[in-house]
Design a protein that fits this description.
Layout: H1 2-10, H2 23-50, H3 54-57, H4 72-79, H5 91-121, H6 127-138, H7 142-155, H8 162-187, H9 190-198, H10 203-211, H11 216-231, H12 235-240, H13 248-256, H14 265-298
Length: 301
């Protein structure tokens, strides 16, 4: 009885229950809420403005929801807005961006994954020097290389073409992607690689049968990074292509900065949202895999 009474006086055992409204939680969630509002408000203004007619926009209340929803600004932004001498909207620039992004992403990721795999699992002479050069290339400002690349593309006859821009994006994306893949492959159990070597698998056999099936998260990270960077690129698209092959971002800039007639803010907002839909969609669809890839080795050394 004495033991029971003593335990009863001591109270319940186990971890203490954390208070929901502790000072730490209030500060944490309050900060997150403020940051979320900071980013959501501009998006909200863009969406409601794109759904209004110009007479309603002239009333001046940018935060009010549309009294009468109209999708005419979206239609005009896609196929009728002027991007210079032509009034074809964003449609041409969209397909140019697709033709630029798809091959650039595939080429850069495949080459970088092989580079990272070789640097992580196959010790060859000069590997450290090669890796150092790649990492050094990742930190060279793009602006420094603009004119030399113009000369190179002109000499091989690809300046002003989509093919030349694909080559540029593939090369500039390779250093950072190689670092990501190398760190990820290093984090995988080395016993799997050794077991495959014992079974007689060679360089490509191990890569395709062992490494690739285990690398979906890091490939997702690489795809998201490349699609976002290439799709949102403006500088390379403006410098290395011509008016017939401008990507979507250059077309958007031409629409927004057009000085002909009245500035149609609803069309500008709709065009901006349409341009950003592709990377946003990629994030929403594969966001969990992106976090898994980062946590599984993308930031490990």
């Amino acid at each position: 009885m004495s033991d029971i009474s003593t335990s009863a006086m001591e109270g319940p055992r186990g971890p203490r229950i954390r208070r929901t409204f502790s000072r730490h939680n209030i500060v944490l969630y309050g900060t997150l809420f403020i940051v979320a509002v900071y980013y959501v408000i501009p998006l909200y203004v863009m969406i409601v403005t794109s759904l209004k007619g110009m007479p309603e926009i002239r009333l001046g209340n940018i935060f009010s929801p549309p009294l009468e929803i109209t999708f005419e600004p979206w239609v005009k932004a896609w196929g009728e807005a002027c991007t210079g001498l032509k009034c074809e909207g964003l449609s041409i620039g969209f397909w140019n961006s697709v033709r630029i992004t798809v091959p650039s992403v595939i080429i850069s990721i495949m080459i970088a994954s092989v580079n990272g795999y070789a640097l992580a699992n196959w010790r060859f002479k000069g590997a450290n020097v090669f890796f150092t050069i790649l990492i050094f290339g990742a930190f060279i400002p793009y602006q420094v290389m603009l004119y030399p690349i113009v000369i190179m593309l002109r000499e091989i006859g690809l300046y002003g073409s989509l093919t030349g821009l694909v080559i540029v994006h593939s090369i500039f994306g390779m250093p950072i992607l190689t670092l990501l893949f190398r760190n990820y492959f290093t984090s995988l159990p080395e016993e799997l690689f050794k077991a495959a070597r014992v079974d007689g698998a060679g360089f490509w056999g191990i890569y395709f049968r062992v490494m690739l099936p285990m690398s979906v998260p890091i490939f997702t990270v690489a795809v998201i990074l490349q699609i976002t960077g290439i799709w949102n690129d403006f500088l390379f698209g403006l410098v290395y292509t011509g008016p017939e092959s401008y990507p979507m971002t250059v077309a958007l800039n031409n629409i927004v900065n057009s000085t002909q007639g009245v500035v149609e803010y609803n069309v500008n907002m709709a065009a901006t949202i349409i341009t950003g839909l592709v990377p946003l969609s990629i994030y929403f669809v594969s966001g969990k895999l992106f976090v898994r890839g980062i946590a599984a080795g993308a930031v490990k050394g």
